[in-house]
User: Fold this.
Amino acid sequence: MKTGTILSRVLIGLVVIGTVLSTFFIVKAAYQQRLGPALDPVPPTAVPTNVPLIAAATSIPTSEPVVSMPTPTAVQTTTCGETGSWNLLILGVDTVVLRGDRGADLTRMMRLDFPNGKVTIYTFPRELWVNTSGLGLTNPTIDATELGTVFYEALLRSHQTTQRNAMVDGTNATARMLSWNFSLRTDHYMTVDVSQAPAMIDAIGGVPITQTAMRFLRIAYHDYQGVVLDAKGEASLLHDLGEGEALILRNHGLLTVGATVGEAFNWMHRLELSCRSQLAAMATGAKLNAVPADVLEKTYLNYQPRTRRPYGVMEWPALLRMLDRIDPGFRG
Assistant:
């Protein structure tokens, strides 16, 4: 019984060993197979031993001297007088505190490669989450936030006494954030505050290039006379406003009125929208398409009272409902 058991175990062991060895050789043979056809070897070119690699010195005429030619040097061309590269940070920001989406709506890094005459633009989404732990955004501390809000958070914490210098602080914080998160240096920057669009339109005058702007075809202007603190200044404003609903205050801003708060808001919103549209169109440098005078007049009349429902009747209640959803306590 014991002998049979021993023999059976020996046979089983021999079978296992044989299986392992056969598997090994099969796998070895498989891995030795080529994955593809071998490259055709290129035989080296034979050089005859009876041909000298360098011609004999007697082949050069001795009667004429050998003239050495100077090695030409490459002349480096410049573009705009520059020979290197710049990284130009471009920010389009909104510093008005009352707006919903505060910060930088546009963040671009433009790389100007002057030697090669090449421009590369990198675009950064506003909602991109970035590390801000080293920017000094305290009270409260912000260690990470959306890329577009970095400018506004730094602007909000700035101790500068002027809006311009506070914007510089916001721009510097954005530049440091881009360096830490994306290893991009900033050599120069351009920051445009789009909330100043009305003041820019004040400087250049309104151009009715959109349907909304045609609503303000006969808008009035008021020359800046200082801070209005007395009845004289009030009378001057009323005189320039006349029977209209909107007034551009030169060197100051915009003023709108209405029979209701919703109507006055509608006039202001549409006037600012017209200013933004005009600046965006003029920034392209393209020739603006002029609208015929008769079309301008007809469109203007379509916006006047008694030709349509009063402004603000539908949109103002909707805006109030939106505010109730965002912050129900705003009415208090």
